[in-house]
Amino acid sequence: MEHIATTPFGGGRITARQFQRQRETAGRQEKLRAGEGGNDTGRADKWQLMRALTEARAAYGIGDRAISVLEALVSFTTTRELDGSAPIIVFPSNRELSVRTRGISPATIRRHLAALVEAGMIFRRDSANGKRFCRRDDNGVIEDAFGFDLAPLALRATEILEAAEAARAEERAIRALRSEVTLHQRDITKIIACALEEGRAGDWLDFKARLATMTTGLGRRMRRDLLAWRRDKLITLRAEVENAYLSSLSEREMSGNELQNEQHIQNTNTDHSFELNGQENTDGSVTISNLTVPEQKMAISLDRLTRICPQIADYTKDGIRSWNDFFAAADLARSMLGITPDAWRKAKAAMGEQTAAVVITVLLERGEAVRSPGGYLRNLTEKAQRAAFSIYPMLQALERSRA
């Protein structure tokens, strides 16, 4: 039979759209068999086609379980390639369909089959009694078959592959937008937190409240246009926050030259300088462990330093009573932090032993906030070698946090 049972068995109805699709499919098949298909061969690798349809399923209004049912139907074909130039009829039983769909119930399978027919992925080729079967000739060749026709799926291969590419492009755009939104939210949050911690002038609580209204409801399925709208709003807010923070900086902070204008931590204690642990040279430098470093005076007493950084006392047996005790404790803490002797030697050469020891005490106080103490110290050493490092901002930050 050239045209077999295009209408559904039982109470099911055929719609005008389904009838039109069947006529269009029959016309395309005639052209393909006559060699008039052009570049569109009506053929496709069935598993590549199923993957593409899975990616583009939203464009066709079919869900994951409908895809599973269609994949089960495709698995009943005997060749890897689907050729839509002729009907591709499969006739599995409900029981076998349920097995190949990992246990989906017959009622659910029927519902998804109807969705696939509605989406134009398959046609029903029902027998007179609604059974799915085939008739074979004496040589075992199939003469007639009744079940589901997969030819529409094969004939739409080009369209489905293009829809899958469009879906991937849309997904990439959404991921990029989501990443932008996340980065802007994170940066704004950290700038506001820094400003509040440093006591900067500005409407930081208002900025924080505005940010909170933009960070709610960022679901995994948020539409692209909504993500773009949120991104644009965050860009505007970020510009305001950054401008407010920069406006709160002093000229010294804006210049970045901390060595010329160090703000010493004041203390009424008259012990304003480190005791020098080494031999003082005629040029004012100090030789420590065969390393020559510039002499550095620090306007902070040992007592106040240990109050700001109390954890260093845990690395001594009898407490810190002198700068020599402090240096010994810093050297022990250095090894416990995993800082190599070479990095420690270079730090003392660039900063001086006093400053290097204070850096170690600060690293102890910051704890897990510094993931790689060795790398952090090497970075500060490089800055010290360029005369671009001062210990005072670190101590000031710790003192403010304790206050």
TrEMBL record:
Q: Which Pfam families match?
A: RP-C, RP-C_C
Please list where the region (Disordered) is annotated.
Answer: 1-43
State the InterPro entries in the record: RepABC_RepC (IPR047611), RepC_C (IPR021760), RepC_N (IPR005090), WH-like_DNA-bd_sf (IPR036388), WH_DNA-bd_sf (IPR036390)
Q: Supply the Gene3D superfamilies for this chain.
A: Winged helix-like DNA-binding domain superfamily/Winged helix DNA-binding domain
- The chain positions of domain Plasmid replication protein C C-terminal read 302-399
Compositionally biased intervals (Basic and acidic residues): 21-34
**Residues in Plasmid replication protein C N-terminal domain copies:** 29-195
Entry keyword set: Plasmid
Do you know which NCBIfam families this protein is assigned to?
PRK13824.1 (NF010396), RepABC_RepC (NF040974)
The protein, known as:
Plasmid replication protein RepC
Q: Tell me the organism.
A: Shinella sumterensis
